[in-house]
Amino acid sequence: MKRKGLITAACAVALLAVLGARGWSESRPLSFGVIIWRSPTLTAQFWNPILRYVSERSGVPLQLKVAPTGTDHSAMVRRGELDFLYSNHNFIKENSASGYRVFARTEGEAERGEIVVLETSPIQALADLEGQEMVFPHAAAFLGYHLPMDALLRKGIHVKPHFAGNQEGAMGQLKAGRAVAAGVNAEVMKAFAKRENIAYRVLWSSEKYLTLALSALPSVPPEKVKAVREAFLQMANDPAGGKVLESSAAVLQQASPLRFIAAKDAEFDNMRRFYRTALVKVELQ
Question: Could you say which of 7, 35, 145, 213 has the lowest number of CB atoms within 10 Å?
């Protein structure tokens, strides 16, 4: 699962059985890129059933594609290699030319980036991190790296950054004591701590951002985008779709299943503003 290049989730055979000739005779499967917050295995276990449902309901075959690292994912977004996205990397200034168009997002409050330490850590304030080793998901992580590192730089605090590859990888290194602090997505950290039974403290929190959107590449035919959009928006209201969402939530021990709602680009303007003024270097491949 860690091999270089794309990790393609094996949902194609299942989709063929579900869709038959109808979906596959019309076009090739369209790629659905998901930001890598967790391990590729957990990501596939969570998303494959959702995409199988959406493919069946929309008649548009979707194939999950997960890059091995966040920077790989960001590079794919910049090059426009993914037909659909569940990501925030399309809002990075350097990636905007790819032209992805938001059509939905997950329901719920906006999210925060955090800097956290273990409950037993002697670190009590951000200033105590000066010169210390700190772990982040990857150099393209908005909540887990860009926001926390920018906050440190604005306070004149310099740390020794290490990158774990994804959100839960960083949390695992913090748990193992390989770094004194971690930059994290607040909600992912909360779920991870519950699942792994660890106690932690928050040293810093960002303002809230709507971070992840469902978007489509401009070249995807409008009728396919509309069909996929409607399938996502109606999923929670359909008994069969609701069961799929509940099962996926159980994989991550989420408190409640995802629910997808309509969205537009303007809802993510504060993220775009951050990237225009950020002190942190946005490292892309």
Answer: 7
Which residue type occupies 229? R
The angle at the Cα of 258, spanning 12 to 183, to the nearest 5 degrees, equals 95
Residue that wins the pLDDT comparison between 285 and 277: 277
Give 106-116 pLDDT, tens digit per residue: 998 889 999 99
- Cβ-based neighbour number of residue 93 at 10 Å: 12
Tell me the two tokens of residue 173: 């290194």
| Residue 173, amino acid | Q
Taking the complete model, does pTM exceed 0.85, yes or no? no
Amino acid identity, position 265? D
Evaluate whether 47 touches 55 at the Cβ level (below 8 Å): no
Q: Which ranges of 27-135 does DSSP label H, i.e. alpha helix? A: 40-58, 70-79
Confidence of residue 283 (pLDDT cuts 50, 70, 90): low
Helices (H), 126-267: 147-154, 167-175, 186-196, 222-234, 239-252
| Mean of pLDDT values over 62-89 | 93
Judge residue 122's burial from the number of C-beta atoms within 10 Å of its C-beta, 0-12 exposed, 13-18 middle, 19 or more buried: exposed
Phi–psi pair at 11, nearest 5 degrees: -110, -5
